[in-house]
Amino acid sequence: MSGRSDADIVASGREVLRLESDAVAAVAERLGPSFAEAVRTVLGAKGTVVICGTGKSGTVARKLAGTLTSTGTPAVFLHPADAAHGDVGVIDGGDVVIAISKSGEGEEILRILPVFREMAAAIIAITGNTGSSLASEADVVLDASVEREACPMDLVPTASTTAALALGDALAVAVLAEKDVDPAMFARYHPGGALGRRLLLRVADVMHSGEDVPTVPRDATMREAICEIANKRLGMVAVTGVDGRLEGIVTDGDLKRIIMRRADMLDARVAEFMTTSPRIIGRDELVVAALQKMESEGPITSLIIVDESGRPDGVIHIHDCLRAVG
Question: Which range, of 106-115, 116-125, 187-196, 201-210, averages the lowest pLDDT?
Answer without folding.
Answer: 187-196
